[in-house]
Amino acid sequence: MRVTKKIKAEQVRILSEVYAGAKPALQFNNSFELLIAVILSAQCTDKRVNVTTARLFQKAATPAAIVALGLPALENEIRDCGLFHGKAKNIMATCMTLCEKYNGEVPEDYDELLKLPGVGRKTANVVTSIAFHRPAIAVDTHVFRVANRLKLATGETPLEVEKGLQKAIPKDRWSEAHHWLIWHGRKICKARRPLCDECPLKEVCPSAGHVE
C-alpha cells in the first residue's frame, strides 16, 4: 500500500474519532510535578510512576523540597521506577537549576527546558504541550512505533518521526495527536502481537497483518 496524503489524512481522522478526548495517563497538579513524572517515566509504566510520584510529592512537591530531601533519600523514594540512580541524579540537578536560575519555576521556553538535566526533546515536548498548552508532538516508544507502522511518519530516530508527524498532522492538532498515537500503541498497535484484526485503521495501514 502506498501511503498518500489522502490516506494519511484518513488515518488522522480515524485516530481523532476513536481516541477523542484522550488525556495523559500521568497524574500531576502543576508543571513541576509533570516534569518530574515524565523524567521518571523513561522505561517505566505510567501506572508505576503515578504510585511513585504520589508518595514522593507527599514529602517533597517543590524543587527546593527535593533538594532539601537529598540524593540518597530521593533515590530511595524513586527506587521502584527503575534506573533510579541516573533519574535521581538528573532530578536533583534539575531541581537545583530551577532554584538557582528560575526562582523554583519550570521555564516555559522550549530551549530553556532542554537545558535542564535529564530533559530531552520528548520530555520538553510533553511539558510544552500539556503544561503550557502549546502545539508539540512528543515521540515516545508508542508514537515512534505506531507512526512508522502506519507510515504516517517514518524515520530511524524520534526526531525524524517528530518532523514527519508535524508535516502530516495539522499544527492545531499536534498535542491531541500525541495522545491518540500513545493510546493506540497501548491498546491496539502493541510492540508484540498487535491486534491488527481489531484495529480501526486496518484498511488504511500498510503494515496490517504483517507485524508479529
Features:
212 residues; mainly alpha; Endonuclease Iii, domain 2; Endonuclease III, domain 1; 2 domains; 58% helix; elongated
Question: What secondary-structure arrangement, pairings included, does this model have?
Answer:
Layout: H1 5-18, H2 31-40, H3 46-59, H4 63-69, H5 71-78, H6 84-101, H7 110-114, H8 121-131, H9 141-150, H10 158-168, H11 174-187
Report what the structure shows.
The protein has 2 domains: 86 residues, Endonuclease Iii, domain 2 (Orthogonal Bundle); 101 residues, Endonuclease III, domain 1 (Orthogonal Bundle). It is mainly alpha-helical. The protein is built from 11 helices and no strands. The chain is 58% helix and 0% strand. The mean pLDDT is 95. Helix 1 packs across helix 11, helix 2 runs antiparallel to helix 8 and helix 9 packs across helix 11. It is elongated, with a radius of gyration of 18 Å.
Main pleated-sheet profile:
none
Helix content: 55-70%
CATH fold field value of the largest domain: Endonuclease III, domain 1
Strand content: under 5%
Number of strands: 0
Q: Write the element-wise H/E pattern from the N-terminal end onward.
A: HHHHHHHHHHH
> On the 0-100 scale, what is the average pLDDT?
95
Uncertain segments are none
CATH architecture of the largest domain: Orthogonal Bundle
What's the CATH C level of the largest domain? Mainly Alpha
* Shape, per Cα inertia axes: elongated
The assigned structural class equals mainly alpha
Terminal CA distance: 18 Å
Number of helices: 11
Supply the number of structural domains.
2
CATH superfamily of the largest domain: Hypothetical protein, domain 2
Gyration radius (Cα, Å) is: 18 Å
